[in-house]
Amino acid sequence: QSLSEQSLASVSENDKKSEEIPIIKASKITNENTSIFPTFSKQGNLLAYIVVTDTLPHMSAVQLKLIKWDNNTKNNTSSSSSSLDNSNLESEIIVDIVENVKENEFPGLFGVSLEKNCFILNDKYIILTSFWRSNSVLLSISLETKKVELLSPKNSNQSWSIVDIFDDWILASVSAPNHPGKLFLTKIDNNNTNNNISTNWKEIEGYSQIETLPIKYDIKKINPSTNLSNESKFDESFDAILLQPSSSSSS
């Protein structure tokens, strides 16, 4: 048998093997038009994702939704097809859009993305970064009770964001207008009677090589003018950040 005949036989055999490989088809598993950041839990039985309402502007409030993947796929995957039948897939709203935001209360999720390791504490919670008025904060969300808690310090004038999550450890960056990001680390725990998550943030010293800038800042809460009509939607206070030279800086 010549070399060319051997090559043809090999190609023919490979063609036969390739015919046995199933073709994986893409399936739409959500009903929303804009579903982003799909993320599986560590055990692979939960699928979380963010839903953006099409009529809202950029960086507006979003929803956090969840699909119990294990049960749905067992009931909806056909043995004769490699595609997924999503007609009975059910998603659950874990965090909804807050229509009427109250002073000093959770305003909803804004500017959110899901980290690949966002599921923590045996997949019972999701950790994420979200905007809260003029700051970014760290939030924990219970998938059982749908309770949203602050993980970053309350009343902080600094912005917190997730750098990485490993097991139940969180590495976060903390920054402000007068200093670059500093690294903080904590191990999260919920071994208490209220089932609340506890943290003990520790700064990683020596990370930031840039000194604090010679400016000071203050977050001012501005109330709208009383001359606005009753039909105006801008009837809540908003934040303004005031930057000034510090008293020790040279003018």
Key traits:
four-stranded antiparallel beta sheet, 251 residues, single chain, globular, five-stranded antiparallel beta sheet, disordered N terminus, 37% strand, 10% helix, mainly beta
How would you describe this protein?
The protein is mainly beta and 251 residues long. The protein is built from 2 helices and 15 strands. The longest helix is centred in the N-terminal third of the chain and has 17 residues.
How much helix, percentage-wise, in residues? under 10%
Helix-and-strand structural type: mainly beta
Mass-distribution shape: globular
Unreliable residue runs: 1-12
Q: What is the typical, i.e. mean, pLDDT?
A: 77
Cα-to-Cα separation, first versus last residue: 91 Å
* Number of DSSP-assigned strands: 15
User: What integer value in Å does the Rg equal?
Assistant: 25 Å
Q: Please describe the biggest sheet, giving its number of strands, its sense, and whether it closes into a barrel.
A: 5 strands, antiparallel
Following the backbone from N to C, one meets helices and strands in this order, namely HEEEHEEEEEEEEEEEE
- How many individual helices? 2
Q: What amount of the residues lies in strands? A: 35-45%
